[in-house]
């Protein structure tokens, strides 16, 4: 007896639903010319100019703010003209000091701090001559090297002034002045002054205009202390507080 069997394959319902869901999924394309890739590049291109514009606006705002803040100061500097440098004497000492009725031997070590207070002016010190004085009489005269000082900067100047056995290029002193200095030395203190004659040039502005001036730097009434009675010790130091503010009268040429 021949018999036939009808075989049916039952497909689960959840498999059908998964298949229908999978039918709606699109394959991921790695083709650079696909629509998804083009959409991504379009978004990046749109974002980059926005960031650049925002950065430029911030920069422009900062520049505008700086101009508003500093313009009154620049205008004030240009209106009142160049200002004299600010000078402080930070140290003064004497070495090998020996004075008699007929002779004087000494070495003075001077340290100055010089600041340019100008906001728009560069100072060039063309010529400098340092003086060491006693009783308003110069004991030593020495030229110094020229140098420049940019706006709102400072520097230190070290002077070494030396006198030994009436050198030919140094001024002569009268005997009565030496006797007074010797007496002051024995009492423990001698007062000196440090001065400088300066020929300088101020340069300022976008056009770099020049103005020539003459300065007379003055650090006055500087008492050097010695050990009283110990004339064999020729070392003395500045008495009192430091730094000392020096005066700088200035005259335009």
Automatic annotation (TrEMBL):
Q: Is Metal-binding tagged as a keyword?
A: no
Give the keywords, sorted. Membrane, Transmembrane, Transmembrane helix
Q: A GO CC term?
A: plasma membrane
Predominant localisation class: membrane
Q: What is the lineage of its organism?
A: Eukaryota, Viridiplantae, Streptophyta, Embryophyta, Tracheophyta
| Regions that span the bilayer | 54-74
Provide the protein name: Late embryogenesis abundant protein LEA-2 subgroup domain-containing protein
Biological process according to GO: defense response to other organism
**Subcellular location, record wording:** Membrane
């Amino acid at each position: 007896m021949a018999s036939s069997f009808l075989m049916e394959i039952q497909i689960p319902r959840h498999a059908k639903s998964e298949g229908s869901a999978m039918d709606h999924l699109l394959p991921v394309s790695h083709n650079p010319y696909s629509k998804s890739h083009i959409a991504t590049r379009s978004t990046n291109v749109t974002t980059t100019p926005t960031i650049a514009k925002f950065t430029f606006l911030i920069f422009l705002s900062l520049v505008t703010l700086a101009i508003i803040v500093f313009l009154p100061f620049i205008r004030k500097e240009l209106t009142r003209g160049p200002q004299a440098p600010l000078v402080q004497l930070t140290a003064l000492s004497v070495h090998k000091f020996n004075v008699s009725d007929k002779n004087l031997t000494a070495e003075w070590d001077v340290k100055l701090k010089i600041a340019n207070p100008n906001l728009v002016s560069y100072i060039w010190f063309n010529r400098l001559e340092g003086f060491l004085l006693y009783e308003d009489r110069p004991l030593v005269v020495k030229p110094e090297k020229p140098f420049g000082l940019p706006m709102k900067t400072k520097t230190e100047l070290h002077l070494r002034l030396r006198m030994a056995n009436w050198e030919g290029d140094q001024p002569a002193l009268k005997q009565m002045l030496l006797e007074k200095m010797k007496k002051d030395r024995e009492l423990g203190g001698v007062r000196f002054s440090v001065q400088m004659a300066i020929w300088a040039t101020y340069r300022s502005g976008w056009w770099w205009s020049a103005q020539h001036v003459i300065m007379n730097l003055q650090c006055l009434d500087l008492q050097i202390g010695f050990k009283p009675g110990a004339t064999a010790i020729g070392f003395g130091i500045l008495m009192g507080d430091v730094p000392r503010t020096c005066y700088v009268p200035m005259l335009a040429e």
